[in-house]
Amino acid sequence: KNHTAVPLYFGQAKRIATPGQRLALFSAPDGHHCAAAGCDRQAAYMEIHHAVTDYARGGRTDIIELAPLCPTHHRMVGDQPGQFSTGRIESGPDEGRTWWQHNAEPGAPPTERLVNRLPDVAHNYFANLEQVRAEIHGRTPLERAGFTLNRINVFDVITPGLFTADTPHAHAFRAAM
């Protein structure tokens, strides 16, 4: 969608993600943690996984087909029962994120596709806190007098530049603030 001078689409010409792709993945919705559901390993420890189609099966080393996985979860991906399959969510609120599904035994019903929600906890916390505060206390005296409160975005203070204006999380997070 937004293009840069750094190549992010290599098709089958390259197997290993480039430093530019790794940096771009870091700003993706699930890019700063392992994409496996429930994993809290941070991006500094990630391997880059062909999440849509395995490279050996024609998968492309394109930014929209890659996802970060910690080494432990990367070794768990495969086609066999007991292993995990991955893919990209194409629409809805989780568009662009990686789903993670446990491969069921033959004859068993398919398991649910999961998304790692741990990276969302801190972002959702502030929006939920504001909603609960408003439900309990109503508007503050200043708000009732017509003033708009400009709250500090604590994430910009703690991790400046992490949520840039171009990252999907930044738009959702700032809208919730």
From TrEMBL:
Coiled-coil ranges from the UniProt annotation = none
The terms under GO molecular function for this entry are: endonuclease activity
Q: Which CDD domains does this one have?
A: HNHc
Name the UniProt key words of this record, in alphabetical order.
Answer: Endonuclease, Hydrolase, Nuclease
Domain HNH nuclease positions: 20-75
Chaperone as a keyword? no
Entry superkingdom: Bacteria
Record's protein name? HNH endonuclease
Look up and give the organism this protein is from.
Gordonia desulfuricans
